[in-house]
Amino acid sequence: MESLQEAAALPGSLAMHIDKEKEDAADAHSQACKRIPTLPEDIWHHIHSLMPLRDAARAACLSRDFLRFWRCRPNLTLNLTTLGWTNKPGEFRCKIDSILRNHPGIGLKTLQLDLLEDEDEITFSDIDRWLQVARTPGIEELILTLFANNYSSLYERQEEYSFPLSLLSDEKVRSSIRCLDLDSCAFRPTPQTIIGPLRSLTNLHLNSVRITGDELECLLSNSLALKELHLFDCDEIVTFKIPPVLRQFRFLHVTECYELTVIENRAPNLSVLEFSGDIIGEISQVKNVRLMRSNVVHYARVVLPSVMPNLEILRILSDSEEVNTPMLTTKFLYLRHLTFRLLSGSTFPPSYDYFLSLVSFLDASPSLETLYLEVRQGSVKSESVFRDSSTRLRQMPEHRHLCLKSVMMEHFSSDKGLVEIACYILKNAVSLECMTLDTNYGPRCHGQRDKICLYMADSYLKDAPRAVAAIKSYINCNVPPSVKFTVLEPCTRCHVREAR
């Protein structure tokens, strides 16, 4: 009974459980103890830590041991899924208060707060108070998402929540925190607010966070163990520098930071880069790059071979190309995997030839093994290989590709350039093992009943039969017997509209 009384302050869902079992709680506890096998306490503690939060809390109602395990549970994920929500004003806030009052922070390794606006019941002082549970020895992961489940969030108002820097100045936190993930708040680190290095921080994720380039540099300079940095929608950053003291820094991912144009890297071992702007400095060791911006195809071909000579994986995504990619003598000597995606909302200008651009990349990549290609335009009709009955495919000079083994062309249409690319590869890739031409638009359901293929516009669905006809008329005759050649048509379950 004592454990039931102590557990009564746990989440609201437990109250119903307690009421239901109140009359025979003592007997239930006695019977439960008889059924529970004798195991070492550390094993039971581990089992309890793997249970979903609500189940773990229910178990704490029936046993003093499980109540003790609850109070030192190593992971707390507090959101609508784990707590439940009945849309009662203030309920979400009260549940979090109740849980954190009963968890002193002992043994806590992961704290995740995904907070709903909750009709203005949650205040900034509430968040400050809840984060104090992370001020404990051994905390490794802190994830804070503010109001992500509600469009009318406090982040969109004039006021903003500022992450308490005093938390990172605490010696207990600085010595153990490994992952910091912040979403929709202000983060203003300065030399005065961060006292001492964050010795164990290896992963930093900032999503829609208000932080300047200087403030980010300050944080990086105090994070000597940092390995990964992820930035998303951080529009106060214009430029920033990665200091040379980050000798373990390997991975940089930046998306939708539209004001950020230049990153200066001085970390000597950066190897994976995903960015839409310019990066200068120490980048010769980069082996894996994903670039996303307009005219990136020309930029990648002209610039990258000289500044990133060790490149092994290259993924380029462009929404607009205006400048043809030239044939150059520079090479990607170690490039093994190439993803080539041109996704335009309209048609490419008549002067742009993406076929020649891809040929330039293939010519420059003697070690290339796999190629993923997707070309999508707002209109496919004007470029169809069937536009003119006298259409002839271009014959390029033969250039043997000795390592290319696998080719995937997604959203394959009757576009003349795509047909020419497929024929060029089949004729010149002497080690080719498989080629797949997918006429579908986007991800497939693969026959799984709980999934659905991405919607295809009528123009694309109408072109799918023409794409299959183009394959039969121009490509099949070029397929060597040793190549596994696969043609995927639109899904008959998801795309049932009649092509008109």
From TrEMBL:
- Which protein is depicted? FBD domain-containing protein
Q: Which residues form the F-box domain?
A: 38-71
Which residues does the UniProt record annotate as the domain At1g61320/AtMIF1 LRR?
Answer: 99-492
Q: Which SUPFAM superfamilies match?
A: F-box domain, RNI-like
Q: Which organism is it from?
A: Eleusine coracana subsp. coracana
Identify the Pfam families for this entry: F-box, LRR_At1g61320_AtMIF1
